[in-house]
Write a structure and sequence with these properties.
Blueprint lengths: L5 H4 L21 H13 L1 H13 L3 E5 L13 E5 L2 H4 L8 E2 L29 H40 L5 E2 L1 H17 L7 H19 L11 H6 L10 H14 L1 H11 L3 H31 L3 H13 L14 H13 L5 E6 L3 E4 L4 E4 L4 E5 H4 L19 H7 L24 H18 L2 E4 L3 E6 L5
Parallel strand pairs: 2-8
Antiparallel strand pairs: 1-2, 3-5, 4-10, 5-8, 6-7, 9-10
The structure holds protoporphyrin IX containing FE (HEM).
Length: 476
């Protein structure tokens, strides 16, 4: 029988489980949310924040507050029900039970000014007719671009590695984050919008930095960037920053996509009934927030996971060079079992989008592995994937990074419980669900990144932000 058995994780058995009142409390008005906020950002940090409460309540489901809160977020309700095991978290994928309108980053919703005064599809629920039109449009873009995906990836990666090598010839330690982001911006502009930053010097030079600033202003109230406390609490987590601070950046990005992405925008208008504005702002959001933002977090964690592990690098190199033929392709990389497993394990240990939310559409009974709980219509569920993906009933040695965890038959079965994309890795993104439209291309692209790396270099030494060595093959 495959492990874990389906009965352990299907939400279909709540009536057989003992019913328990959801433990935890929201505390006194203002004080409770403020205290939780300080724990979350300062005294504990997110992982410890959720772990401590899970231990305290002896439950993977409990009530707590998540930021932002007090003083200048009066319209944000910080109360959530945390769901921290694989079974309770899975309710977030059930579109009958949860509404995904305006909950991308919790109850806090960045101003629509950041997206051209349009509420883009990623913030829409599946019941919104615009959601299916736009998701279909994005999935069509991905399908059409699959023909150039690998050649553009390899071309842009070669440019990136040459830049990093040039810096390494001058210094023993090279920070790679901005070069990586320049690569991501060029690659995704081309494959998603058909736009080419190399024909626009301003975009080529600093398009990535414009997106960074635009992203930062939207997300600052909800993330920690590790500057000295209490400065971070006072300056970054107490109020939302206004759009006008990045309006010039957004205008530049908008004009770039409008001018260079004409064909893609046209298809959105003619093929999917979108207005020009809807097509451009949604395209820009998927490019900047989902693709660029997601990979800016994911690739450094992938590099870090292999960065100083010589034995693992040897195995990955062997597979990258022996399998998949002479040319990398979306098909050939599928033969690289260890490389793919490595990608999945990195997503399990470090899911790039760690928090997912969903609002109860109706009263319903939610189950964890041990108990069932009554959830009321309108309550907000909050899953912190970093803990969910360490559910010991599903994953052996859950705290251990095991590069080959997802190999062979057992590993393939475990993909049912890998949730980084807001759905299982074995699931399919459709217009009727909220699973990441880029799900399959994201993992294949990361696998191609690794395969390309180990075809180019014998070994590397790196962490999440810099390289200290890139060893090219020596031919005698
Ligand atoms: C490492 C990269 C990526 C990660 C970690 C990631 C993760 C996610 C997650 C967690 C969601 C669900 C958010 C929620 O509703 O709670 C999502 C949604 C989405 N993602 Fe991705 N994503 C990545 C890259 C991409 C790429 C490359 C594309 C497409 C080009 C893409 C397109 C989308 C779209 C359109 C949605 C909204 C789906 C819907 O509204 O139904 N993502 N992504």
């Amino acid at each position: 029988m495959p492990w874990p058995p389906a009965s352990l994780v299907t939400a279909a058995t709540p009536t057989e489980l003992p019913i328990r009142q959801i433990p935890g409390s929201y505390g006194l008005p203002l004080v409770g949310p403020m205290w939780d906020r300080l724990d979350y950002f300062w005294f504990q940090k997110p992982e410890k924040f959720f772990r401590k409460r899970m231990e305290k309540y002896k439950s993977s489901v409990f009530r707590t507050n998540v930021p932002p809160s007090f003083p200048f977020f009066g319209n944000v309700n910080p109360n959530v029900i945390a769901v921290l095991d694989v079974k309770s978290f899975s309710h977030l994928f059930d579109t009958d039970l949860v509404d995904k309108k305006d909950v991308l980053v919790g109850d806090f919703v960045p101003s629509v000014a950041f997206t051209g005064n349009i509420r883009v599809a990623v913030y829409q629920d599946i019941t919104d007719p615009q959601h299916s039109k736009i998701k279909e449009y994005i999935m069509d873009i991905l399908k059409r671009s699959s023909g150039i995906w690998v050649s553009e990836l390899v071309r842009n990666l070669d440019i990136m590695w040459e830049k990093i090598e040039a810096s390494m010839s001058k210094s023993s330690s090279v920070s790679y984050l901005f070069t990586l982001q320049q690569f991501l911006f060029s690659f995704f502009s081309k494959v998603l919008a058909g736009a080419d930053p190399s024909s626009d010097p301003k975009m080529e030079e600093s398009g990535y930095a414009m997106i960074d600033r635009w992203l930062a202003l939207q997300l600052l109230p909800t993330v920690s960037i590790g500057i000295l406390q209490p400065l971070e609490e006072i300056l970054l987590h107490s109020f939302a920053y206004p759009f006008f601070l990045v309006s010039e950046d957004y205008k530049n990005l908008y004009n770039f996509i409008k001018q260079q992405g004409k064909e893609t925008i046209n298809r959105g208008e003619i093929g999917f009934g979108l207005s020009e504005e809807e097509a451009i702002h949604n395209l820009l959001f998927v490019l900047g927030f989902n693709a660029f933002g997601g990979f800016s977090i994911f690739l450094p964690s992938l590099i870090e996971a292999i960065g100083s592990n010589g034995a693992l690098q040897e195995q990955l190199k062997k597979e990258a060079r022996e399998k998949g033929g002479t040319r990398l392709s979306l098909e050939s990389v599928k033969e690289m079992e260890l490389i793919q497993s490595m990608v999945y394990e990195t997503l399990r240990m470090n899911p790039p989008v760690p928090l997912q939310y969903g609002r109860a559409r109706k009263d319903f009974r939610l189950s964890s592995h041990e108990c069932a709980f009554e959830v009321k219509k309108g309550e907000l569920l909050c899953g912190f994937q970093k803990l969910v993906m360490r559910d010991s009933l599903i994953f052996d040695d859950p705290e251990q990074f095991k590069p080959d965890r997802f190999t062979n038959e057992k590993g393939a079965h475990l993909l049912n419980y890998l949730f980084w994309s807001n759905g299982p890795q074995t699931g399919t993104p459709t217009v009727s669900n909220k699973q990441c439209a880029g799900k399959d291309l994201v993992t294949l692209t990361a696998a191609l990144f690794l395969a390309h790396l180990f075809r180019r270099y014998d070994s590397i030494n790196a962490d999440a932000s810099s390289f200290t060595s890139l060893q090219k093959p020596t031919f005698t």
